[in-house]
Amino acid sequence: MPSLWVDADACPRAAREIIVRAAERTATPTWFVANHAVPLPPSKWVKGLSVSQGFDAADNEIVERLTQGDLLITSDLPLALEAIEHGARVMTTRGEALDANNIRARVQMRDFMETLRASGEHTGGPSGYSDTDRREFANALDRWLAKNA
């Protein structure tokens, strides 16, 4: 059975709650990985993994533990690229599937926007996590779990 891996450092609380409920409902092993303690309910299926402080420590731990067919939930595009290269599936907390067909273009756009921001351009950030985002994410996660759990 594939596991769920969550890049918990920037996972919205609403998405975390959706993941926990889905993991419990489907008895799917789920790991929340962060460089700080993530509040989680007691569970047989949901575990938190705190890693040492340090640049990309949580990302490195996730990549080391991922196995082919696992699902990583993250909005970190470089981490997503690495996970895809290791055979994992990737989904954002907005329900967007990232795969070999779209990840490189997304990383390139991210890098371009980062260059603009570094030059003083105001590009704005991502929009807030909306009810539509929650619904899209919950539906996408349910579809994935129905096929893979």
From TrEMBL:
List, alphabetically, the InterPro entries matched. UPF0178
Protein name stated in the entry: UPF0178 protein BOX17_11915
Q: Which domain of life is it from?
A: Bacteria
Question: Which family would the database say this protein is a member of?
Answer: Belongs to the UPF0178 family.
Alphabetical list of Pfam families matching this protein: DUF188 (PF02639)
